[in-house]
């Protein structure tokens, strides 16, 4: 019975034009991340989580069949290294999914605004607008203090071909 249900589900996905990505990997284990685990793996999407040595935890996820976007959430210590850490996570995000920053001047302005907001104990989300649309992708950032930590979401939306 379960096999029949699985066959029907896969057939439904195939008929929707969705490719089975359940064997895809973001290759988080090939980086400095520790304790990498697969949080979700199914034909319609995937999520992987890992931790950097400084205690920063990132989760990278995608819902392939519903949204041409990748999301990275970050839970990190809040300290003098916030911006350096955020730059490193942006670099890893690009490495994981090929979502490069295209407008570095705007990127630097954004990170200065993030630094000012976090230093004031405030959140930053660029009023919901993308922080970079100059390249092939639109990149969004939302970050906020959470006690002695910071919580951030970086989103990369693929542009339609």
Strand content: 25-35%
Report Rg: 17 Å
* Topology as a string of helices (H) and strands (E): HEEEEHHEE
Biggest sheet, strands in spatial order? 1-2-3-4-6-5
Low-confidence sequence ranges: 1-15
Overall geometry: globular
Proportion in helices:
25-40%
Average of per-residue pLDDT values:
83
* Main beta sheet strand tally, sense and closure: 6 strands, antiparallel
Number of helices: 3
Question: Total number of β-strand segments?
Answer: 6
Amino-to-carboxy terminus distance: 40 Å
Which features does this protein show?
single chain; 161 residues; 3 helices; 6 strands; 29% helix; globular
Briefly characterize the structure:
The protein is an alpha+beta fold and 161 residues long. Helix content is 29%, strand content 32%. α2 crosses α3.
Task: Write up what this structure looks like.
It is a single chain. The chain is α+β, with helices and mostly antiparallel strands and 161 residues long. The chain has three helices and six strands; from the N terminus they run αββββααββ. It has helices spanning 2-15, 82-97, 104-119, and strands at 34-42, 45-51, 57-62, 69-77, 137-146, 149-158. It has a six-stranded antiparallel β-sheet with strand order 1-2-3-4-6-5, with helices on one face. It is globular and about 45 Å long. Mean pLDDT is 83; it is low at 1-15.
């Amino acid at each position: 019975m379960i096999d029949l249900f699985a066959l029907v589900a896969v057939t439904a996905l195939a008929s929707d034009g969705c490719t089975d990505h359940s064997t895809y990997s973001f290759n988080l284990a090939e980086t400095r991340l520790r304790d990498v685990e697969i949080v979700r793996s199914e034909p319609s999407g995937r999520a992987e989580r890992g931790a950097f040595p400084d205690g920063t935890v990132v989760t990278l996820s995608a819902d392939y069949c519903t949204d041409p976007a990748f999301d990275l959430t970050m839970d990190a210590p809040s300290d003098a290294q916030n911006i350096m850490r955020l730059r490193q996570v942006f670099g890893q995000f690009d490495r994981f999914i090929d979502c490069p920053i295209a407008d570095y001047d705007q990127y630097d302005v954004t990170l200065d605004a993030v630094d000012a907001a976090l230093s004031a104990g405030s959140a930053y989300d660029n009023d919901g607008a993308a922080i970079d649309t100059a390249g092939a992708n639109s990149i969004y950032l939302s970050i906020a203090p959470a006690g002695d930590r910071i919580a951030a979401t970086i989103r990369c939306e693929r542009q339609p071909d």
